[in-house]
Structures are given as C-alpha cells and as structure tokens.
C-alpha cells in the first residue's frame, strides 16, 4: 500500500482498468478537486468477478498504462490487491482500514458502477465502512436516484455542494458529484481493438 500519514484524506479508486482511459483520469481529477483529497489510490485489480473474463490484459500492462494516465502527483497507482490475494472490494477495504488507523478514506466510483453496486459481495458492508463518492458518467446520471444502493442509503446522502465534508462524515455517507463527463469506456475501446466480439 502507498505510504500515508495520520490525518490524511485518501480516495480509493478501484477497477480493472482494462484499459485505463481519459474517463478514468477525469473521475480521479474530479474526486481529488471536489473532495479535497491528499492522495488518490488508483487501485488496479487482478480482475472483476462481475465482468466477463474473455479478455483481460495482463496486470503489469494495465498498471503501466494507468501510470501513464495518472499524471497528478497525488495519484498513486497500485495493485496491492493481487499481493494480498484478495478478490472482493469488501475484503480489500477491511485490510486497508486495519492497516491505516488515523487515515480517512473515501471509496470512489463512477456512476456506471452505482447501478450494479448491490450485486457486489457485501455491498452494504462497503457502504458502512467508508463514505462513498459517486462521480457522474454519461448515461448513468439518474442512477443516483434509481439504484438499489441510492434507495437503501437515501438517508445517508450528502448534498453535492457539501462534497468536501464527506471525508469527515462517518459512514454510511455518500454523495453524487456532477461534472465534466467522458464518453470513453474500456468496453468500447476493447471492441474497437477487436478484443470483444458480441
């Protein structure tokens, strides 16, 4: 795990990044700016149990491409999930919390993930572990109203205007952040490159 100091506010941005693209960088930059993060951990996962494994670029390749995308010095590209031998976000977050007492964390995800968040293993536990910032993505703006997670934790929603307070708000707490959106997607890029045949 990247080095952190007590009192820091760190965003956790996980995904397969298969491949990483400008949309991912935009989510990271919006999160850093709107949440007032000291660091953002760009966590490249070995894989995603909910996504097709028909084509997954090697982890080392996805890390290298992510490092090229992550130009802000506050971003730390890491793949410690593989080293820990963990497969699920809830397990990873438990380990992060156990190893970093005194550090405040926010889980960051694109709105496209909010739509299916209730399908993640122990999704309610994730929402009860760290505050969550959902960054708008094209076609998923309304997911913050219609998703199972949004409905279940409606009482814990922090107004977007107060997003910079999220790191000081005990979980469950979440916000939906609007802003510039990129139409790029990893799936579309793989299709363009002939790596997915539907």
From TrEMBL:
Species per Swiss-Prot/TrEMBL record: Rhizobium setariae
Any one Pfam family match given in the protein's UniProt record, by short name: CTP_transf_like
GO molecular function: ATP binding; nicotinate-nucleotide adenylyltransferase activity
HAMAP family hit by this protein: NaMN_adenylyltr (MF_00244)
Catalyses which reaction(s): nicotinate beta-D-ribonucleotide + ATP + H(+) = deamido-NAD(+) + diphosphate
Main function: Catalyzes the reversible adenylation of nicotinate mononucleotide (NaMN) to nicotinic acid adenine dinucleotide (NaAD).
Protein's UniProt name: Probable nicotinate-nucleotide adenylyltransferase
Family: Belongs to the NadD family.
